[in-house]
Every structure is written in structure tokens, then in C-alpha cells.
């Protein structure tokens, strides 16, 4: 196993004093009430192992969150498990549901922990590529990727790294294919609240016939700007949640005891925080995408998430990796080459020449990055 691209690029950022728009974490804190609640829990004695499936107040708050936002009914004792971030929910879902030789259909470019966990489970990846400029999911390609060995479709919407929010037609296509072929859907919805303009996140589990075959994953990290907390969850049918719980026993067993009641309070009481965060991120998006375009980079406008994608080929670069390795010296900015998120970055419409930029940063940080890019020679 090699070092992740994020570790490599973050080290490069430190070494060169670059503005780091690589790894996706905000540089501002979550809501003060959330931090106070964690501190109170810590000083109030919530410091020993929490129950493996999570503390009841958090499981109940997650069930209320799904009901309030999407009308989804969940039994908090059987249909909700708390995990160590969405990362462990992904691991638990894939280790718990995929047997060696099973195929997993996954949107490409993909979040990198998916490929590691499909490998750990002995599964086989079947990528379906989302292509620039609009990164739409092609139903025919999805259909072609699903076969007799497919165990599940691993969805991610809003989608990292493209910033797509799958629309009603795309979700309906996934639902139709999943039901026709009788496969499960595991859906990573960590950016559920972080959508822009008139794009709205719709959980695929709310489509007809999907609740019984969908495992939904999310996390407090992105919604409340506490990516370091690693409090996530999986929700859905009891037997799918049970598969995650079974795997989780041998991963971490249990997660951040004092953080769980704090996240519960935030889910119940801080509804406005993610709404304001999304509005703020939309402004940061516009600031960064505007700056990237002024610097001569072809930029696609994301509909959600923390990330914008650019095409560096117009500047003469054939590889986003070469561009990103040169960028810290040239401009004092770090970004992530999207080529690492593809099985075959040179495949049709794939992303050898694409680069991902994080805009979940303070305005002055983005300003500085944009200024540096404007002043630099970015041609190959
Ligand atoms: C950040 C992220 C995660 C990880 O969530 P944690 O709660 O930090 O483990 C999972 N999936 C996607 C798509 C992400 O961007």
C-alpha cells in the first residue's frame, strides 16, 4: 500500500510554504454550541467505551434528522449504527456486504477509500465514469456495468470530486437498474447539506422500492465543519445495518464517546449551521472558480461539496499529476490530480488532465491562492 496522494501533497505544501487547496477540510471551527457540548460531555464523565452501535441519544437524533429532512422512518435501535466517521461506515459496509469475487459498481472518479475497501473485501471494481464537462451519469453505462456478479452499486452524491448532485433522472435510473438486477445500493451522502443554487440532495432511499435495498452513509464532519471528529453513521434496513455493525466490531468496536452526545445535540438544534455553511461555500466556490478561470484554467462549476475541478490541458499539460507536482514551485499552491481517482485515467473521457481544488477555506486564503495563481506562469 502506497502513501495517499493527500499525504504526499500536504507534505509538499508544508515544504514549499504553499496555500494548501488539496485536502478537503475547513479552516474554521464548527458551531460553538457543538464544541461546548463535547467539552461538557468530556468533563461530565462520558469517557469510557460507548455502546458498539452508538449512544442512544445520537441514534435517536440521527433517526429524527432523516425524518425531518427527508421523511425517512427509522427504528433507532435496529436501523442506525454510529461509526468512526463515514470512512468506517464505508469500510463496514464493504467488508460486511461484499464477499471475495463480488462486483461493486462505483462512480468514477471515486473517493479513494472506496477502492481500498473493495480490495480489502476481495471485491472487484466496475467503474462507471462521470465525464466532463457535465459529469452526468449515463444510464446505459450503468446498466452495462451491472451483471450477475454485482453485489452492490456504491453511489456518492453530492459527488466528491466532481461536485455533481445527482438529479431526479439519474437517481431514477440507478433505482431502476438496482431493482431490475436485484442489487443493493450503498450511498455516501456526507455532503447532503452542502449543495448550491437550486440543486437539492435527494437520498436514493426515498425513491419507490429503494428503502429496502439501500444503506445510507453520512457523517457530522462535513455538515458541522468538524472533519477531525470522525463521527459518522449508517442507516437503512436492519439486516444491512447489522452487516456494518458486525464488521465494525472488529474495526474500532466503538467510537468517540464524548463526541456522540454533542453531535446528537447539533443534529437536533443546529439546523441553521449547515444552511449557512452551504451559502458560505457557494460564495467561496464562486471566488475560487472565478480566480481559476482568470488564471487561464478551464473550470467546471460544482453543484455541491467542497471541490471544484479544472482541466489543465488548455495550458499544454497532458497530466494533472505533472501539473500538481510543478504547481507548488511555480505558484505556491497545492491541488490534487484527479487521475488518482480513476481505474484508467487515460480511458474515454477519464481524468488524466483534471485537477481538484478545495474551496472550503477562509476567503482570505482563497484570495491569496488566486493572487498567486494569477501571478504565475502555469503553462506546461
Ligand atoms: C470526507 C468524506 C468521507 C469521510 O468522512 P469522515 O466522516 O471524515 O470519515 C467519506 N466520503 C466522502 C465522499 C468524503 O468526501
From TrEMBL:
Domain Aminotransferase class I/classII large: residue ranges: 19-372
InterPro entries: Aminotransferase_I/II_large, Kynurenine-oxoglutarate_AT, PyrdxlP-dep_Trfase, PyrdxlP-dep_Trfase_major, PyrdxlP-dep_Trfase_small
Pfam families assigned to the protein according to its UniProt record, in alphabetical order: Aminotran_1_2
Record-level Gene Ontology MF annotations: transaminase activity
Cofactor(s) recorded in Swiss-Prot or TrEMBL: pyridoxal 5'-phosphate
Keyword tRNA processing in record: no
CDD domains listed in its UniProt record: AAT_like
Keywords, ordered alphabetically: Aminotransferase, Pyridoxal phosphate, Transferase
Keyword Metal-binding among UniProt keywords: no
Name of the featured protein: Aminotransferase
Species of origin: Nocardioides aromaticivorans
Organism placement in taxonomy: Bacteria, Bacillati, Actinomycetota, Actinomycetes, Propionibacteriales
Amino acid at each position: 500500500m502506497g502513501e495517499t496522494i493527500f499525504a504526499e501533497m500536504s507534505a509538499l505544501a508544508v515544504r514549499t510554504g504553499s496555500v494548501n487547496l488539496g485536502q478537503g477540510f475547513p479552516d474554521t471551527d464548527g458551531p460553538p454550541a457543538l464544541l461546548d457540548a463535547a467539552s461538557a460531555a468530556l468533563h461530565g464523565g462520558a469517557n469510557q467505551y460507548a455502546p458498539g452501535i452508538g449512544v442512544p441519544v445520537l441514534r435517536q437524533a440521527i433517526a429524527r434528522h432523516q425524518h425531518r429532512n427527508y421523511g425517512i422512518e427509522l427504528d433507532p435501535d435496529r436501523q442506525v449504527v454510529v461509526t468512526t466517521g463515514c470512512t468506517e461506515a464505508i469500510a463496514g459496509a464493504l467488508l460486511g456486504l461484499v464477499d471475495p469475487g463480488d462486483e461493486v459498481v462505483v462512480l468514477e472518479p471515486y473517493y479513494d477509500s472506496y477502492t481500498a475497501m473493495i480490495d480489502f473485501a476481495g471485491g472487484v471494481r466496475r467503474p462507471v465514469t462521470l465525464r466532463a464537462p457535465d459529469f452526468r451519469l449515463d444510464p446505459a453505462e450503468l446498466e452495462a456495468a451491472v451483471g450477475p456478479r454485482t453485489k452492490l452499486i456504491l453511489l456518492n452524491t453530492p459527488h466528491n470530486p466532481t461536485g455533481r448532485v445527482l438529479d431526479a433522472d439519474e437517481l431514477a435510473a440507478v433505482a431502476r437498474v438496482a431493482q431490475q438486477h436485484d442489487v443493493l445500493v450503498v450511498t455516501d451522502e456526507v455532503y447532503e447539506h452542502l449543495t448550491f443554487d437550486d440543486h437539492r440532495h435527494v437520498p436514493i432511499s426515498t425513491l419507490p422500492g429503494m428503502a429496502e435495498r439501500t444503506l445510507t452513509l453520512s457523517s457530522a464532519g462535513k455538515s458541522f465543519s468538524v472533519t477531525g471528529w470522525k463521527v459518522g453513521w449508517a442507516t437503512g434496513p436492519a439486516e444491512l445495518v447489522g452487516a456494518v455493525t458486525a464488521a465494525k466490531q472488529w474495526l474500532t468496536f466503538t467510537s468517540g464517546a464524548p463526541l456522540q452526545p454533542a453531535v446528537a445535540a447539533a443534529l437536533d438544534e443546529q439546523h441553521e449551521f449547515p444552511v449557512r455553511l452551504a451559502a458560505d461555500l457557494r460564495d467561496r466556490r464562486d471566488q475560487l472558480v472565478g480566480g481559476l478561470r482568470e488564471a487561464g484554467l478551464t473550470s467546471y462549476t460544482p453543484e455541491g461539496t467542497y471541490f471544484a475541478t479544472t482541466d489543465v490541458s488548455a495550458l499544454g499539460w497532458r497530466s494533472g499529476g505533472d501539473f500538481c507536482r510543478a504547481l507548488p514551485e511555480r505558484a505556491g499552491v497545492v491541488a490534487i490530480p484527479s487521475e488518482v481517482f480513476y481505474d484508467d485515467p487515460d480511458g474515454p473521457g477519464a481524468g488524466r488532465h483534471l485537477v481538484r481544488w478545495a474551496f472550503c477555506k477562509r476567503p482570505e486564503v482563497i484570495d491569496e491562492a488566486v493572487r498567486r495563481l494569477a501571478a504565475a506562469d502555469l503553462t506546461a
